[in-house]
Amino acid sequence: MRVLSGSARGVPLKTVPDLDTRPILDRVKKSLFSILDAAGLLAGTRVLDLYAGTGVQGLEALSRGASFCYFVERRNDAVALLRENLAKTRLEIQAEARLGDVRVTLDQLLARRAREGARFEPFDLILYDPPFAFSREDATRGAVEEEMATAGKLLSGAHARLVLRTEKKVDPPQPAGLALARHWTDGPHALCFFTATHGA
C-alpha cells in the first residue's frame, strides 16, 4: 500500500494485518481520486475520513492538495499506524487523528457546529468507508443510512460530496438529506457519490 500521487507520491503506508479491515485496491483508489480531482474536490478542500483505518484514503487526499483531513477511527492499533503514516508522509500538520466511535464523533461535530455557527468549518469531502458490507435485508442497513444522514449535515454545500465505498451487488443506500449523484462500478467494487439536499 502506498500513496499514488502528489507530494507524498510513492511513500509506503502501513496497514493493519488482519481481516477486520477492507484496504482499498490501488486501481479503485486511483479511479476514486481521478473522479474527485476532475470534480475539483481535492485542491484546498477540507476532508473528513470516517472509518479511516490507517489513513490510506485521507492521506491520498492530503498528498493531492487537500488543506486538512480529520481522521476518525475506533481501533487503537489502526490509529497508531495512522499517526506513523502521517509522520512518514510529513502531512501531520494538516491533519487531526481522532480515536473514537464514528457516530459519537459525528454528534460531537454537529454540536460544535451549533455552538460555533458561522465560525465552524464544514467539510467539502467526506470519505465514508465502513469495514462491513450491507444489503437491503441486512439489519445494519438502516443504521448505516442514519449515520450517513448525520454525516451529510457536515457537508459544506451543493458542490461537496460524501463518498461511500461498497460492493456492486449492494443497492445504494438512501440516507435522508442526501441524493445519489453518481454510482461508479468496477468489477465487484462500487463507489457511491452523494450530494446534500439540505442547506449548508
Key terms:
7-stranded mixed beta sheet; Rossmann fold; 5 helices; globular; alpha/beta; about 200 residues
Count of discrete domains: 1
Termini separation comes to 35 Å
Shape: globular
Strand tally:
7
Which structural class do you get from the secondary structure elements? alpha/beta
Instruction: Characterize the main sheet.
Output: 7 strands, mixed
Q: Would you kindly provide a written description of the structure presented here, covering whatever features stand out?
A:
This protein has 200 residues and is an alpha/beta fold. It has one domain (31-196): Rossmann fold, CATH 3.40.50.150. It is built from 5 helices and 7 strands; from the N terminus they run αβαβαβαβαβββ. It is globular, with a radius of gyration of 16 Å. The N and C termini lie far apart (35 Å). The model has no long low-confidence stretch (mean pLDDT 90).
